[in-house]
Amino acid sequence: MRVLTAAAATLALTFGAQFASAAPVEIKFSHVVSENTPKGQMANRFKQLVEERLPGKVEVKVYPNSQLFGDNKVLEAMMLGDVQMAAPSLSKFQKYTKSLQVFDLPFLFRDMAAVERFQQGEHGQKLLGSLKKKGLVGLGYLHNGMKQMSGYAPIRTPADARGKKFRIMTSDVLQAQFEAVDAVPLKKPFSEVFTLLQTRAIDGAENPWSNLYTKKFFEVQPYITETNHGLLDYMVVTSAEFWLELDDDLRVEVKKALDEAIVYGNQVAAEKSQADKQAIIDSKRSRVIEITDAERQQWVKAMKPVWKEFEDEIGKELIEAAVAANK
Ligand code: LMR
Questions:
Q1: How many domains does the chain fold into?
Q2: Distance from the CA of 311 to the CA of which of 60, 111, 261, 305 falls in 20 to 30 A?
Q3: How many angstroms separate the first and last alpha carbons of the chain?
């Protein structure tokens, strides 16, 4: 009887192990913004598509608002296998590759159509592979949009930024950009920005419309200047270890779902760059300032020398390819 029980236990263990290996693959998708943003909507659509098409095989758990990991931790966590997907802004990869710094150069892209041409062109597609040596795989770009400057006092010209503290993402190019106008840039995680602004620990920030609106920065920044001086876009990444260990058929389906979710997220980005700006204007909590061409030229003149400063790190050819996308 005892022998029989032991045999049954062995059987149970064997079958148990088989069931365990048939458990769905889990994809934790961590991000720092609200759900009602291009990235939030893209991640949710990705979950929906994957779970519709691969029921019981792949499960996606989306963690918005820095719930799981903040900006400074998510890529390290990915290497450790604690999270499988994220879409940090292109400014947050500096530790992993210098080439992506091209996207931070001020006044580089004329509009989002130029950004799209560059990302989908030869150079942009090659950059998706620039994290390979670090064990990360770039799966695609996602748009948010152009950044605007906000402050407690109206900002029209570079002189208005002088001596003011601005929160920036962890990017040396962004640091140089603000230093070029004698402002004081501070690298801080996204999750801290509202409090820093509310308590006036900093004077201003640079954000696209959807982040200004959904994180309520406009409620603690009475002036937003429509500078469109730089880009905030994302790269969806995963770890090579996770990606290559997925069964081929699952990998193909997951990638297809992601590509479709990105198309959707880009539509949301285009819509929200208008709708969220309008919502801020309608709120009357913050005044949106439009600058003249002459004022804009002052910013360009002050900030463009940053390109030369980073030319060796980024590569001249890459900068030229990005400029060429404006035509
Ligand atoms: C920021 O830190 O300002 C952005 O990267 C947040 C985001 O992901 O849009």
A1: 1
A2: 111
A3: 82
